[in-house]
Task: inverse folding
């Protein structure tokens, strides 16, 4: 056994007590859906985990009506302090059931247990804890005195961080006084359904949170429902665009967290060891299924070879395999569909002339897997430098001057995140000023915190999640929309 | 014997210059009673695109200026308007058909709006941004930045001068550059305002003003890939939902129509900014 060989160390699934099938969570109870149920599978084994109800338009109606009722009769009448107490309860329950949630997440999503256990689930608890404290302090949210809740929020979330995205959506919505109908992704509904049990344990009033499982048509029916006041979506730019169109003219307030093609800029004065670790974390964290992933490495030309060599060495030590194994670094690709897309884009990268390098690692027989891959000598016009791959694929480009790095980093319709690696603080701050991206990590990457706003520029969407700004996305200033200043002047004129 | 007046030729304002519409078109601006006032340029799709190019070119310099500097430039606009109050009052009386008192009140309110917004230029970052107490050894700061190039449909009812201040000032004080479609019926105040802008310290291209038909020009601006935001303040009478749908193709930020000139507000400033959050590691010592 070499030093890279580890004995298997699987996390037990005995902590899970899953049902064979799950209904929709509407008005505080699990109910049958009216669509055709579907199976959720483990992407690591392709084995069925459970049967999941499918919400159709009628179920969406029922759920939105329940949320509206809960808003009118219960939630909007509750004091901020009491809303906060419910959120604190939820945070504690998540902490208490953390291991169970982590196992369910890794099983259903395919992400390594060390990530779901140490990143996703702790952040879920932190998110509820943070926003719990805001619920009775809305006057200090920066919107002036007595800001208003919006009403019913329709929320649609992706499959890459299923429970964390749920927390990002539900915690601020409830703290601000809204009620929620949320749809988890079709391929990762499991943790949301366990979360529904947590809501029952917390005795959250019925209808305040409703969870509808289903596919794209369920989400479409939900965001287009005439009785929702707020739409929050995290997912692809294509779907975000469609949502922006469909809500035009409805007055629904919208937050969109869409795609990204982040540049991770490494200057020659960077601490190289940390930078290499950061680049690896930037694109191979969560199999690259991260909208803010550092998918474009921009490395200064004079250290290009050294950095790429070190990256290859480092990637060769990553362990790909069973997501539930505590030693696993790279888990399974979430779905066959996504795997096909990653393969297709990688093939295009090769055809367009970039140099492909793939880590030499054993691929399990069953399941969906993609070994860590680097494309070197990628040009700015190359498809893999422009399109979001959403997988463990890094494109390497070079630059000579900070100005060139900035120009290349900004040369994308996206603007979600960016990374800067340098030991020179003044250079970092000057470059950060010029990057058109909503989150900039300097000498670190992929850090998330409930106190820190997250969201994009340009076609990466609009609105922020996290922090005071994330709270404001679920509130309306009491002064907004007041009569125009000019009205009396016009009356005076005839 | 009365003196024969010297009428002014009203043109577009693009990139700090006053071109006629490349289309060669003009339209008649009339008094409230239907009398002829002037021939205004009727801007075309090409003029709109030229204006976007000018606004994009001016963005780096203007957004890179200090807030203190931008605040002084906005205040300078108020100073120059103050010096030309009589001209604007006369123009408003003739184009809007309002009383002299009402016109005077509008000019005063517009000047005060410029002053109010000028004062925000070096403060809004403090109010709309903040440090974030993250759980880890990181410096973490959120600050608002200008969204970029903003296309604006100016208020179309009355208040043709005040309406411009109410939409232009909150957009440019943060460093955005703008392409404004003026009031179609009362465009003269917009062109006279551009004369003020041209002789104040506003760099060419920061504010570009088009006269003509908003219904004709707005779709091109809404769909332009180099426009980052669309303020539909004066689009109430247009098919503004269609404009919003066009704007969704490039995921533009869209501000909805309002009735009249929107009241000065911090929300209007912040609505055309993007929050940037910068993390930096702190070493363990």
Result:
């Amino acid at each position: 056994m070499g030093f890279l060989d580890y004995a298997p160390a699987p996390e037990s699934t005995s902590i899970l007590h899953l049902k064979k099938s799950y209904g929709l969570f509407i008005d505080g109870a699990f109910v049958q859906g009216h669509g055709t149920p579907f199976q959720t599978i483990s992407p690591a084994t392709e084995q069925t985990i459970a049967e999941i109800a499918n919400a159709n338009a009628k179920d969406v109606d029922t759920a939105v009506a329940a949320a509206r009722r809960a808003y009118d009769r219960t939630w909007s009448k509750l004091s901020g302090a009491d809303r906060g107490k419910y959120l604190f309860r939820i945070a504690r329950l998540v902490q208490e059931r953390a291991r169970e949630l982590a196992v369910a997440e890794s099983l259903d999503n395919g992400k390594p247990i060390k990530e779901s256990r140490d990143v996703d689930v702790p952040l879920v608890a932190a998110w509820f804890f943070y926003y719990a404290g805001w619920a009775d302090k809305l006057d200090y949210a920066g919107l002036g005195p007595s800001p208003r809740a919006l009403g019913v929020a329709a929320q649609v979330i992706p499959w890459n961080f299923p429970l964390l995205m749920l927390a990002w959506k539900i915690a601020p919505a409830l703290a601000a006084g809204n009620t929620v109908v949320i749809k988890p992704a079709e391929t990762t509904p499991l943790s949301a359904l366990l979360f529904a049990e947590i809501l029952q344990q917390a005795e959250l009033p019925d209808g305040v949170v409703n969870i509808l499982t289903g596919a794209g048509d369920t989400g479409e029916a939900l965001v287009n429902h005439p009785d929702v006041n707020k739409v929050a979506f995290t997912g692809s730019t294509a779907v975000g665009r469609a949502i922006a169109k469909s809500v035009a003219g409805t007055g629904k307030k919208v937050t969109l967290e869409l795609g990204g093609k982040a540049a991770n800029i490494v200057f020659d004065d960077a601490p190289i060891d940390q930078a290499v670790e950061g680049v690896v974390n930037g694109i191979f964290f969560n199999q690259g299924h991260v909208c803010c992933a550092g998918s474009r490495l921009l490395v200064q030309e004079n250290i290009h070879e050294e950095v790429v060599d070190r990256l290859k060495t480092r990637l060769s030590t990553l362990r790909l395999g069973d997501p539930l194994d505590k030693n696993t670094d790279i888990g399974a690709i979430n779905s066959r569909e996504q795997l096909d897309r990653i393969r297709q884009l990688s093939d295009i990268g090769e055809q367009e002339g970039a140099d492909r390098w793939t880590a030499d690692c054993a691929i399990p027989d069953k399941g969906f897997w993609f070994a860590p891959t680097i494309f070197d000598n990628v040009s700015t016009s190359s498809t893999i430098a422009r399109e979001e791959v959403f997988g463990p694929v890094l494109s390497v480009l070079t630059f000579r001057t900070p100005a060139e790095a900035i120009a290349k980093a900004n040369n994308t319709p996206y603007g979600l995140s960016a990374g800067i690696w340098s030991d020179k603080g003044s250079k970092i701050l000057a470059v950060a000023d010029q990057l058109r991206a909503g989150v900039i990590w300097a000498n670190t990457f992929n850090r998330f915190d409930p106190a820190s706003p997250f969201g994009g520029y340009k076609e990466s969407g609009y609105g922020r999640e996290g922090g005071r700004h994330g709270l404001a996305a679920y509130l309306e200033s009491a002064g907004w929309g007041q009569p125009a200043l000019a009205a009396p002047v016009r009356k005076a004129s005839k | 014997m009365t003196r024969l007046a010297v009428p002014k030729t009203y043109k577009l304002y693009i990139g700090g210059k006053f071109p006629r519409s490349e289309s060669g078109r003009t339209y008649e601006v009339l008094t409230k009673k239907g009398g002829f006032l002037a021939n205004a340029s009727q801007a075309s799709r090409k003029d709109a695109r030229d204006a976007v190019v000018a606004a994009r070119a001016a963005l780096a310099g203007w957004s890179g200026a200090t807030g203190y500097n931008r605040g002084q430039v906005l205040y300078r606009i108020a100073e120059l308007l103050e010096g030309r109050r009589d001209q604007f009052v006369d123009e408003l009386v003739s184009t809007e058909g309002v009383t002299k008192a009402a016109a005077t009140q509008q000019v005063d309110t517009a000047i005060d709006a410029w002053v109010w917004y000028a004062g925000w230029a070096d403060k809004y970052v403090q109010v709309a941004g903040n440090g974030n107490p993250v759980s880890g050894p990181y410096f973490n700061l959120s600050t608002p930045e200008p969204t970029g190039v903003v296309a604006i449909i100016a208020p179309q009812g009355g208040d043709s001068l005040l309406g411009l201040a109410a939409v232009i000032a909150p957009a440019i004080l943060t460093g955005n550059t703008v392409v404004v479609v003026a009031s179609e019926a009362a465009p003269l105040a917009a062109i006279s305002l551009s004369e003020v802008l041209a002789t104040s310290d506003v760099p060419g291209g920061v504010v570009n003003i088009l006269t003509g038909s908003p219904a004709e020009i707005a779709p091109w601006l809404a769909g332009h890939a180099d426009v980052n935001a669309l303020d539909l303040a004066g689009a109430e009478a247009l098919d503004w939902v269609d404009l919003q749908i066009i704007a969704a193709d490039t995921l533009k930020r869209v501000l909805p129509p309002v009735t009249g000139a929107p009241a000065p507000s911090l929300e209007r400033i912040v609505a055309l900014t993007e929050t940037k959050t910068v993390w930096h590691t702190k070493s363990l010592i």
